Amino acid sequence: MEKQRIRNTLSEISKVLQSTRPQENSLFAGQLGLVLYFAYLSRNNKKVKQLCLNRWHKVLQAFNEGEPKLDGASYSLGYGGLLYVMMVLRDWEYISAADCEAADLLAGHLLQQALDMIARGLNDPLHGSFGILHTLLYFAEVTGKDRYAKKIFKEIRTRYYHHSPPLIVNRMESAEAAGNFNLSFAHGQCGMLMILIHAAKQLGYQVSTKRFVEKSIDYMLGYRKEAGYEGTLSIFPSLINSVSLEAGASGRLGWCYGDLGYLILLTVAGKYLQNQRYIDEAEALGCRLTQRIRSAETAISDPFFCHGTSGLVSVFTFLYAETGADIYKHTAFYWLEETLKQLDYIKNKESEGQQSILTGLPGIGLVLMEQSDSSLSDWRKMVLLP
Predict the structure, then answer these.
(1) C-beta separation of 228 from 234 below 8 A
(2) What CA dihedral angle connects 332, 135, 353 and 48, to 10 degrees?
C-alpha cells in the first residue's frame, strides 16, 4: 500500500514537471535539475529517457548559442552543475564521450574559478569552491582525470589545514552571516568536511586530512550546550563569530542548517576516522533528533528537501544505511508519511519555483524514487550525502 501511495504521488509530481518550463538552466533551480530528475525516473521507466535527453539538448543548445542561462561557475546555479549532469549522463551511457567535448574546457574553467574563490574566502559547499571541488571529484571518477580536483584540494590543504581556529572561512553567505564561521551542512563546516573526507578517500593525503577533520570536529564539539542554545532546541551552533568566537544556533531540524548536519558529519567521520567517541556522540545526538517531531521542535512547514519533510526522509534513510540503527528507519518512515500527507499541497503548488531541487517538486520526487527503489539512492551524492 505504501509503495502504491509513493508511486501515485510520484506520478502527480512527474505530470506537473513534464509541463514545467524553467527560466534558467541551473542544477538546483532550473532545467538541469529536471534533466537529473527525469534521468533517475528513466532508470525504471525507459520511456522517460527521451524526456531527459530532450531537456538536456535544450540546455546544450542554449550553451552553444551563447545564452547558457547559468549563474557563474557554481555547482548549484552555474557551470559546475552543467558539468555534473554531463558526467551523470556520460556515466550512464545516455550520452557518449564524443558528446562531452566541452567537458575538459569546462573543468579547466571551473578550476581557475575555484582557485580564485579560495583566495577570496568563497568556500560554500553549494555555491563556492567546495561545490566545484565536489563536481570535479565526480568528473575524476567518470573520466579518470583527477588533475583539476587535485589542484583545488592542494590549495585548500595549504590554506586551511593549519588555520587557527581549525575552521574554513566562507564569505558567500547572507549579510547576517558576515564575519562568522558558518558551521552548517549546506553552507558551512559540516558540509565542507564531508567533501574533504570524500576528496581524501579519492585523491590521497588522508593523514593530514584526518588530522584536520579531527581538530575541526573537536573544536565544534567544544561549543556543545546540553541545555540547548537560547530560544532553540539545538545543542550545537550554526555560526561562530570570527572575532569574538561567540556562537549562535538555528533551531531548525533540516538538511541545510541545525544539529542534523552534525549528526551526518559525526556518523561519517566516526567511521572514517575509526573514532568511537564520535560514533557515541552521533548515537546520542541521533536519539535526541529522532524525538523531535512536533512543528515547534523542528520549524518545518513544507514537504520540500532543503528544510522540509522530504529532506528528513532522505537524511534518516541515509543514516539507517550507514548505521543499521532501526530508530533511523522508523524516523524516515514517519517523515515519509508526513510528506505523503501533503499531496494536495504538492499538487496545488503554484508553478513558480516548482523546478527547484531544494525548494520544489524535483527534490521531493527524487526522495520518493529512492524510497520505492533503493538502487536509486545514489542521487543523494548531489546533496553531499555519499
Answers:
(1) yes
(2) -80
Q: Which helix (H) or strand (E) holds 342?
A: none
In the sheet where 239-241 sits, what is the strand order?
180-182, 239-241, 247-248
What residues contact residue 358 under an 8 Å CB cut-off, 6+ apart?
28, 29, 256, 304, 305, 306
Please state the separation of Cα 342 from the chain's center in Å. 23
Q: Print pLDDT tens along the chain (386 aa).
A: 578 889 988 998 999 899 889 999 999 999 999 999 999 999 888 889 999 999 999 999 999 999 999 999 999 999 999 999 999 999 999 999 989 989 999 999 999 999 999 999 999 999 999 999 999 999 999 999 999 999 999 999 999 999 999 999 998 765 455 678 999 999 999 999 999 999 999 999 999 999 999 999 999 999 999 989 988 899 999 999 988 999 988 888 999 999 999 999 999 999 999 999 999 999 999 999 999 998 888 989 899 999 999 999 999 999 999 999 999 999 999 999 999 988 766 666 554 457 899 999 999 999 999 999 999 999 999 999 98
For residue 173, give every residue at least 6 positions away whose Cβ sits within 8 Å of its Cβ, in sequence order, or none.
124, 180, 182, 187, 188
Q: CA–CA separation, 286 vs 263, rounded Å?
A: 7
Helices (H), 65-188: 79-91, 103-119, 129-143, 147-160
Q: Name the β-bridge partners of 324.
A: none
* φ, ψ dihedrals at 231, nearest 5°: 80, 5
Side-chain half-sphere exposure of 190, counting CA atoms within 13 A: 28
**Cβ atoms of 74 and 84 closer than 8 Å:** no
Bond before 303 cis per omega within 30 degrees = no
* Whole-prediction pTM: 0.96
Number of neighbouring beta carbons within 10 Å of residue 50: 11
Q: Where are the extended beta strands (E) located within the chain?
A: 180-182, 239-241, 247-248
Alpha carbon separation from 111 to 42, 47, 247 (Å, rounded): 32, 37, 33
